[in-house]
C-alpha cells in the first residue's frame, strides 16, 4: 500500500469562521516591512531521526557505561529498511569488528553517521543518498553474519563529528533543530532556462526595503505574457504579491487585502496559477485555516476573496496545504490537504462555477489518501500532474487525464534508491513543451529537482546548490512555475 491511511474520512469543519484580518493596520519599525532579516544559518548538516518509531533498548549513557564509544540501539525486526538520517555518500564496511556489517553515511561539513549490525547492504559504495533513502537492512540476531557482537535484533546508530569523535545523534538533532512549521526564512528566486541551465539562487528584497526579506510560504505562477506572479506569506503572516515582468524587472511587494476589509490578509499557505486568458487564480489558507480564493484579472484588478466550502458541507473548507493549476481550457484545479490530512480535489470551471471537493483515494483502498503537502500543474494535453508528500512524507505522483480519469499513485524514488523520496514540501510546474518539473524540500531540508519528460519518464533528483556554494540549498518551502518560453521560475523560503 502506497499511502498510509489513518482513519476513514469524516466531514471537517474549520476551526473558526473568523475573517482573515487580525489586529490593526498600524505599521511601524521592522514589522512595518513585514519581512524580517534572515536568521543565522545552521551549524551543521540537517539530520533527522529515522528510527523515532522504534523503542530505544540501549541509550547513549548505557553504551558509555559498558565501555562502548557511544551509540543508541533501536529494537526492530531483522530486515527492516534503514533510512538515511541525512543526505550524504554511502560506504559499506562488511564484518567491521564488533559492529558487524556497518554502513557509513558521509554528510556535509565532515559529519558522518554509522548504522551497525546490518543483515544486508543495499547500495554500492559511493552512492549519494538523500535523507530517507533506504541504505541497508537491519540485523543484529545473535550469531548471524554481519551481527558482530550483537545479541538481538536492533540497529545501533551513532554519529561522528568532523574531529573524528563519536557524538550522540539525538543530541546533535536537538542542537540543530529544524525550524518548526510556520517559521520564516529568507526568500530566494532563481530561473531555469529552457536549456536546463540555472541562474543560481538570489535573494529577494522584502516589502518597503531593499534588504533581503523573509517569508513563511511562497508561490509563483507563469502567465501567457511571460510574467511571473509571486505571492507570499510574509514573516508577519501577511499576504503580499509582486510581479516579475517578462523583461526580468520586478514590481515591489504589495500587501493584498483580506476578505471584507482593506487591511492585509493573513494566512499560512498560498498558491497561485496562471490561465491562458491572462488571469491568475490565488488560493490562500487563511490564519483561520479556511481556504480562500480570488482572481487577478488580466488587467491587474483583483476580485474579492471568497471562501471555498468543504467536502459534503456548505461551511468553509479547512486546509493545511493548498495547490492550484491553470489548465489550457481556462479551468483551474485545486488540491488541498484537509484538516484531517486527507487529500481533496476540485475544479473551477471557466464560468467561475466550482465542482465540489472530492477526496482522492489511496491505491487499492476506498479510503482517502493522506498527506502533508500537495502540488498540481497543468500540461498542454489538458492533464493535471499531481504530486503529494503522502503518509510519512513519501512522495507520490499521479495524473488526472484531460478526460477526468486518474492514474494510480506511483511513488517517486529518492536519490540513489528505489524507495520513495521523503519530502517536507513539494511543487510541480508544467511547461509548454510537455515536460513537468518537480522540486522538493527533502527530509534533510535540501532542495532537489527532477524533470518528467513528455513520455512520462523521469530524470533522477538532483540537489540544487545554495547561493554562492556548491553544497545543496536548504529551505522549508518551494514553488515553481513554467513560462511560455519553457523556462521555470523557482522561489524558495531558505534557511
Ligand atoms: Zn549499540
Automatic annotation (TrEMBL):
Residues 194-472 form the PLL-like beta propeller domain. Pfam families: DUF8189, Peptidase_M23. Residues 71-169 form the M23ase beta-sheet core domain. Signal peptide: none annotated. SUPFAM superfamilies: Duplicated hybrid motif, Fucose-specific lectin. This is M23 family metallopeptidase. Coiled coil: none annotated. InterPro entries: Cell_wall_metabolism_enzyme, Dup_hybrid_motif, M23ase_b-sheet_dom, PLL-like_beta-prop, TAT_signal. Gene3D superfamilies: Fucose-specific lectin (2.120.10.70), Glucose Permease (Domain IIA) (2.70.70.10). GO terms for molecular function: metalloendopeptidase activity.
Amino acid at each position: 500500500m502506497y499511502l498510509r491511511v489513518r482513519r476513514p474520512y469524516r466531514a471537517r469543519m474549520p476551526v473558526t469562521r473568523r475573517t482573515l484580518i487580525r489586529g490593526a493596520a498600524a505599521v511601524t519599525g521592522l514589522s512595518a516591512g513585514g519581512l524580517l532579516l534572515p536568521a543565522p544559518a545552521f551549524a551543521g548538516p540537517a539530520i533527522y531521526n529515522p528510527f523515532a518509531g522504534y523503542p530505544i533498548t540501549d541509550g547513549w549513557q548505557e553504551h558509555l557505561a559498558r565501555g562502548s564509544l557511544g551509540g543508541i540501539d533501536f529494537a526492530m525486526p531483522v530486515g527492516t529498511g534503514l533510512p538515511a538520517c541525512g543526505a550524504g555518500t554511502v560506504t559499506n564496511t562488511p564484518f567491521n569488528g564488533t559492529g558487524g556489517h556497518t554502513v557509513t553515511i558521509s554528510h556535509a561539513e565532515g559529519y558522518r553517521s554509522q548504522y551497525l549490525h546490518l543483515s544486508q547492504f543495499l547500495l554500492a559504495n559511493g552512492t549519494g543518498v538523500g535523507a530517507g533513502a533506504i541504505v541497508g537492512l537491519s540485523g543484529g540476531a545473535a550469531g548471524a553474519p554481519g551481527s558482530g557482537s550483537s545479541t538481538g535484533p536492533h540497529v545501533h546508530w551513532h554519529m561522528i563529528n568532523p574531529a573524528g569523535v563519536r557524538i550522540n545523534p539525538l543530541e546533535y538533532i536537538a542542537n540543530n533543530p529544524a525550524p518548526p512549521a510556520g517559521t520564516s526564512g529568507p526568500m530566494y528566486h532563481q530561473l531555469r532556462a529552457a536549456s536546463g541551465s540555472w541562474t543560481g539562487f538570489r535573494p529577494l528584497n522584502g516589502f518597503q526595503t531593499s534588504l533581503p526579506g523573509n517569508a513563511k510560504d511562497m508561490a509563483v505562477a507563469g502567465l501567457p505574457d511571460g510574467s511571473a506572479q509571486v505571492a507570499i506569506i510574509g514573516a508577519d503572516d501577511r499576504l503580499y504579491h509582486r510581479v516579475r515582468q517578462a523583461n526580468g524587472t520586478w514590481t515591489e511587494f504589495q500587501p493584498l487585502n483580506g476578505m471584507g476589509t482593506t487591511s492585509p490578509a493573513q494566512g499560512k499557505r498560498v498558491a497561485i496559477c496562471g490561465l491562458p486568458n491572462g488571469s491568475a487564480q490565488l488560493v490562500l489558507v487563511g490564519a483561520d485555516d479556511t481556504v480562500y480564493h480570488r482572481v487577478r484579472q488580466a488587467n491587474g484588478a483583483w476580485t474579492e476573496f471568497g471562501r471555498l466550502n468543504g467536502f459534503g458541507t456548505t461551511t468553509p473548507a479547512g486546509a493545511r496545504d493548498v495547490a492550484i493549476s491553470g489548465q489550457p481550457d481556462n479551468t483551474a484545479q485545486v488540491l488541498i490537504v484537509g484538516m484531517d490530512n486527507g487529500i481533496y480535489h476540485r475544479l473551477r470551471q471557466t464560468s467561475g462555477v466550482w465542482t465540489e471537493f472530492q477526496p482522492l483515494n489511496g491505491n487499492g483502498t476506498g479510503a482517502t489518501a493522506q498527506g502533508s503537502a500537495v502540488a498540481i500543474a497543468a500540461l498542454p494535453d489538458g492533464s493535471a500532474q499531481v504530486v503529494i508528500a503522502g503518509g510519512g512524507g513519501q512522495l507520490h505522483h499521479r495524473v488526472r487525464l484531460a478526460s477526468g480519469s486518474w492514474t494510480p499513485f506511483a511513488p517517486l524514488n529518492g536519490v540513489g534508491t528505489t524507495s520513495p523520496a521523503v519530502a517536507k514540501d513539494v511543487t510541480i510546474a508544467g511547461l509548454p513543451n510537455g515536460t513537468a518539473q518537480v522540486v522538493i524540500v527533502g527530509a534533510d531540508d535540501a532542495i532537489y529537482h527532477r524533470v518528467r519528460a513528455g513520455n512520462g519518464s523521469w530524470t533522477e533528483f538532483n540537489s540544487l546548490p545554495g547561493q554562492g556554494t556548491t553544497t545543496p540549498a536548504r529551505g522549508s518551502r518551494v514553488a515553481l512555475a513554467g513560462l511560455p518560453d519553457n523556462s521555470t521560475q523557482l522561489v524558495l523560503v531558505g534557511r
